[in-house]
Amino acid sequence: MYFLLSKILLFLILPLYWIIILVLIGIFVKNKRAKKRCFIAAAVVFYLFSIPFLMNAFQHVWDIRQQVNHKKYSCAIVLGGFSGDGGEDGGHFTEASDRFIQGVKLMDTRQVSHILISGGNGMLTPGSFREAAYVKTQLKKFNIPDSLILIESNSKNTVENAKFTKAILDRTHLPPPYLLVTSGFHMRRSLMLFRHAGLQVDPYPCHFLTFSTHLVIGSFFPDVNVLAKWEFYIKEVIGYAVNYFK
Q1: Which pLDDT score is estimated for 1?
Q2: CA distance 78 to 75
Q3: Can you give the pTM of this predicted structure?
Q4: Which domains are present in the chain?
Q5: Which of 64, 202, 206, 219 fits 187 for a cystine, CB–CB 3.0-4.6 Å?
């Protein structure tokens, strides 16, 4: 029920839907003053959440960019969310595939001896696709032995990622600490959940949704791509707050 409710409520917290709702209210409301206020509010929300300046400032505060040292780890925990159903070999990679790339890199450079992929199917109506199982087939194309690949293919969200990963690592007896590999915007909440589950993890952030860090005139011009990126951050902030108080 919590999983279903979180998916439904996500639509109510995104700026795009705030704008749509304000515009619709402005269209159908009879009072001229209220109509004007709705349109102005919609314009303000659109502007604030579509300028790179505000996004850059928030990313600077929220993203975890800490890079680990070069010590060796027994396992890299790579969180799913970078591949999906469809494609000639049963799946495809998405724009978050840097998580996969960094996992392969850690194995190739032997900074980690094992890799654990945590991800099932987070869709409301999941089919047979399981992300971790698909990713394992891709890892084997890089000649990574089966014995060094661990998969957790039942989780639907980050809470379950942490819970189910903990159970697997307890069984394998791989010594902590572990490297946690996920997107920069997702790292703060992931660290909290994995450490709360009892796992000793060091952050290995990647896949940064970074716009230009230079303050230029264009930083204050609306960009629809910026508006779309807020979905990631608003979801993370609310998820962090809910998980923290739970």
Answers
A1: 53
A2: 9
A3: 0.89
A4: 2-63+218-245 (no CATH), 73-206 (3.40.50.620)
A5: 64
